[in-house]
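Just scan my protein:

——
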Amino acid sequence: MNEQETKAILALCSEIWANVSSPNAARLAIWQEMLADLPFELVKRAIKQLAYASASPFIPPISEIRRTVAEMTGPVYPTPAEAYGQIHQAVNRADWDETEIKEHVHPLVWRVYQWIGAYDYRMASSDIIRAQFMRMYQAELTRALEHDRIPEAFHRQTEALRG
């Protein structure tokens, strides 16, 4: 988004949320920097979605706007129950052929399955493995959603700073 579009977003926010004052130069600069990688129309749609869904009288934080845009545009991840169903069906169908299992599940599901391991998956009771898988998948899903909210350029800069 450019400066004019950022001003328009802040103006929209001030119309929706009464506690938002006119943007000063510092607020404008921060919002522009933090939302620069997002298309104006998506940010505008996210603001409207948040306005419809929230009972809060306060403007949503930038992170909430970014999360909403990521949910609208990012990859669709299976829920923990769907993920368990995918791996359970794939394992039963593939007769433990790892290549075939991998082809039939979401990459996030496959990653969690690898963490558990085929042997443990096969040997544990179904109730225990289901609970363990769903807990591990939920943690990985949360990480993936958080990663999707942050611009790739920021991830690259962070990696460069780590050395």
User: Anything to note?
Assistant: The longest helix spans residues 126-149. The mean pLDDT is 90. The CA atoms of residues 89 and 104 lie 9 Å apart. Residues 80-149 form one domain.
